[in-house]
Amino acid sequence: MSLARMFAIGAFTLVFVVIGMIEVAARRPGSNIPTLGALCGFVMRYQVRRLPVGRIAVLGFWWWLGWHVFAR
Amino acid sequence: MEPHSQLMVEAPRPWARPLVLVPVFAVVALLGAALPSFSGRATALVLVAGGPLFWLGLSARLPRHRAPRRLPSGAAWWLLPAGVLFAVEATNFLLGSTPDHPTLSQLADIPLAGYPCRAAAYFGWLMAFWGLVRR
Predict the structure, then answer these.
(1) Counting Cβ atoms within 10 Å, is residue B16 exposed (0-12), middle (13-18) or buried (19+)?
(2) Binary contact (B78, A70; C-beta < 8 A)
(3) What distance in Å separates residue B14's CA from the closest CA in chain A?
């Protein structure tokens, strides 16, 4: 395994560890960090006039991700 | 009494209860995981499973969790993993997405080649999709 590949795997692992740590911190009572779900909810509130741009973007991204992972 | 941070507007519909949805998602995941990548059937199942969820997410048919109007300052912490993920993913993508410079999806292909892991991931994708629909 090359050093570059090891670095990439390490970086991705670190990202998910940090995500887990922030989520745990966000769920502590009195935390001023929003949970990932609350963050998604905030983004999904975004509208341009009456068009729910945030919802379309987040749900569309998740749908695309499923296709990318399981069907492409 | 402590105020609820996430209030429901109304009770969920009978078919939207976990008792109904979890088995349905499990069956879809078990079927979907058996379909090979790059196949029309795999694409069709993602479209058939994701389409109604996408539509439900845009409609007002289901009660949603209350989303915050403003984010607290601690939200900036999320920029750290997002930034690193974007930087590593973009760098590896621009370097050709080779075995030496793998993107996340390329690395995910290895565990997802096995049926149990693929089925579990499919189920997780559907459950997370449902969670987003209710946001």
Answers:
(1) middle
(2) no
(3) 23
Give the CB-side neighbour count of residue B117, counting CA atoms within 13 A.
8
pLDDT tens across B25-44, in order?
A: 999 999 999 999 889 999 99
The candidate with the shortest Cα–Cα distance to A70, out of B30, B82, B27, is B30
- Terminal Cα distance for chain B, rounded: 24
Check if the beta carbon of residue B42 is closer than 8 Å to that of residue B128. Answer: no
Residue of B nearest to A69 (CA): B105
The pTM score is: 0.89
**Residue B131: closest CA among chain A residues belongs to which residue?**
A37
ipTM here = 0.92
Asked if A32's CB is within 8 angstroms of B72's CB, the reply is: yes
